[in-house]
Design brief:
alpha+beta; disordered N terminus; three-stranded antiparallel sheet
């Protein structure tokens, strides 16, 4: 997946859950489940029990961009075979911070340009020109 807030955490509202989530991949084994921030597209390792024992889920806050969302237990994603969670690159964190400072969407990666050229629609077959 290439993104995970290792060393960073989604905020859960209780210090116990925050510290548990921040320890995934260090003192705690990484779960094979994760959630994704809809704003900056950062991924975070999380286990279903991290969302609490009551109700259908919990409100989370992304530690990268500050976006909040309700995460239901039914919508936790599972890593596919051959995939792994990795540390977020500093360039991702810097891009999100710059986007926020410039009042752009956290996941903005630049303006896209589409160049259209004139293509000759000629066809030739070898030996027959």
């Amino acid at each position: 997946l290439g993104t995970r807030g290792a060393g960073r955490s989604t905020r859960f509202g209780t210090a116990l859950l925050e510290s548990k989530q921040a320890e995934y991949g260090k003192s705690l084994e990484l779960p094979d489940t994760y959630v994704r921030c809809g704003a900056c597209h950062s991924h975070f390792a999380i286990a279903e029990e991290d969302l609490g024992t009551r109700g259908k889920g919990r409100r989370l806050e992304c530690s990268v961009c500050g976006n909040t969302w309700f995460q239901s237990k039914e919508r936790i994603m599972t890593l596919r075979s051959g995939m792994e969670l990795k540390e977020l690159p500093q360039s991702h964190l810097d891009r999100v911070a710059l986007n926020k400072a410039e009042n752009k969407a956290p996941n903005f990666v630049g303006d896209a340009k589409l160049y259209v050229g004139n293509i000759a629609f000629q066809c030739s077959v070898c030996g027959n020109t």
